Amino acid sequence: MKKSYLKTLLIGLLLGLCYSCAQNVTKPKPYGPIPTERQLAWHDMEYYAFIHFNMNTFTNMEWGDGSEKPAQFNPTALDAKQWVKTIKDAGMKGVIITAKHHDGFCLWPSKYTEHSVKNAPWKNGQGDVLKDLSEACAAYGLKMGVYLSPWDRNHAQYGKPEYVSYFHNQLRELLTNYGDIFEVWFDGANGGSGYYGGANETRKIDNKTYYQWDKAIEIVRELQPNAVIFGDGGPGVRWVGNEEGWANETNWSLLRKKEVYPGYSKYKELRSGHEDGTHWVPAECDVSIRPGWYYHPSEDIQVKSLSHLVDIYYQSIGRNASLLLNLPVDHRGLVHEKDVEQLMALKQQVEQDFSNNIAKNIKVTATNVRGNKAYFEASNTIDGDKNTYWATEDTVTEASMTLEFETPTEVNRILLQEYINLGQRVYGFNVEAEVNGNWVIIDTQTTIGVKRILRFDTIKASKIRVNITGAKASPLISNIELYRAPNLLTQPVVKRDKKGFVSMDVADKNIDIYYTIDGTEPTSKSNKYNEPFSIDAPTVINVIAYDAEKSKQTVSKTIHYDISKKDWKVIKVSSGKLTDAHKIIDDNPNTSWASNGENTPNEVVIDLGKVYQLEGFTYTPVQGRWPYGIVSNYEFSVSQNNKTWTTAITGEFGNIKNSPIKQTVRFNTLKGRYIKLKGLKIVDNDKRFSASEIGVITKQ
Ligand code: FUL
Range of 389's domain? Predict the structure, then answer.
């Protein structure tokens, strides 16, 4: 009893002492523009999902022209809970949905238009996607945002003042009926051709004035005071100036806001922001997990690879920006299995990379500390509290901080954070490591901002030093973390060139590649890949990537190669440039050729250089985002002398439009030196005929 009384007294005395110290603490003054409370809350979001799901999902378009009919909107198994669970499981904190895209169709039963779910067959017109999503978000504890396209290619009054009232009314509906909204997304794409209630014409508007942005912002402030507004120039959050998911390494959360407007022509500046910006307008990186924003079955084979997604993560979140990763919900109304798989792979990799912060509780010192040392000491950067920070004296803008391990420790990532509540300050820094008693510079960089992550080769260091080499005002660093991330283990990419040389590659140079050419399963005892080697005859290659550090390997991948194409020549094309046609026999599916569709039959003739026993052929359609000229029905012929031809086979490539992958067709053995592929029918009745690669199967 007595003991505990004494303890309470002591604690009381200590608290009193601390309180009186606190009275003497003078905090650094803010420098330049600083974030608002709602922007600070948004900074905490960091990683959240975009959902592009709307009329385009059903018309297989990216931009509908506004003439679509509500009857076309009919998901068969829409389940917003599946989206939200996926997003939550992926480690994201929110979701923004395309409530209305440029084609004008509304995912909610807006009372201001008939062009909405209320006239769709889905749930007999009783459905409301926004409601489903907001309920799912509430159930899973996810924040919700709305994308509302200012441009509306359906609305008859678009271009006139009446449409602007309609746009504002719709904004009101969205911000009133669906709970808390964390972000309102205004797209910069604007004005042009459209259906416009049947007028089918081109309408131009002035992006800066037409939408009465001041009023729109007022509506958001009135109905959702905590929501940030996204636009090319903010005001709350800015576009990052590309749709690939990266910010520049130099990235200021500042913007000369008055200069930037929706559709800003110097948008590349947005990748770095403005060092002398007048307002706090941080960058958001929007990127899709597939080539398109909307779901297209043909892109099921083009979901971004793990290494690509990991790069996106480091080049957005690791560069002072947030990551808005798009999931194109499919026509069932679900996030596709392939997308779920990649999202989870990314989550797992990020978790592994940042699983063990080796800077926790280690010794840290600084060359300079602000007046009241107890409050601004260097150890504030490793205490896990984002509200405490290391600060230098007001006049000091160059200073260093050293982190010391007890024993030399492997490290390959550093994460740095500025205390942005008082402004973004640092414009120059480098990171050094003490290795075997010598200091080496690991990286030299510019800005830090809310979060900066650097990846570097694994080193065994006894100390890490962060040198701030330039800051607008005394640097305030709230957090430093160090990691030893595992190697990135992904399946090798295998390529063969026209000369027959096979090369293999993996995303992480610490990973080894092993392969076999005798049909057996490769292990870490098989052939180790070191440099390109030649494969001229039909061969099956089995390959794995192997992480020696963890004794872990990928599942094996099998590649079938037939004869190399080194002696091949395209000798005839029905139209288009013969000089470009070599692209269909360069063994590179990323290059392609197309006829111009002027002459029929649409065909190409290839000379294989000598006579072979042929048993089949392969056709790889164009792999780009906007493929055209894909052959759906073919005729394949063979000749020994380029005069007498034998038709080897005619047929159809099933489902090639939706699944434009390499097609393999076999036929009864025929001797031949010349081959001819004729496109009898082209997808979408296009007149052109294209290919990225044509190959043969020879008798073995
Ligand atoms: C762009 C739009 O035009 C695209 O369709 C997509 O919505 C993307 C996120 O923004 O400006």
Answer: 363-483
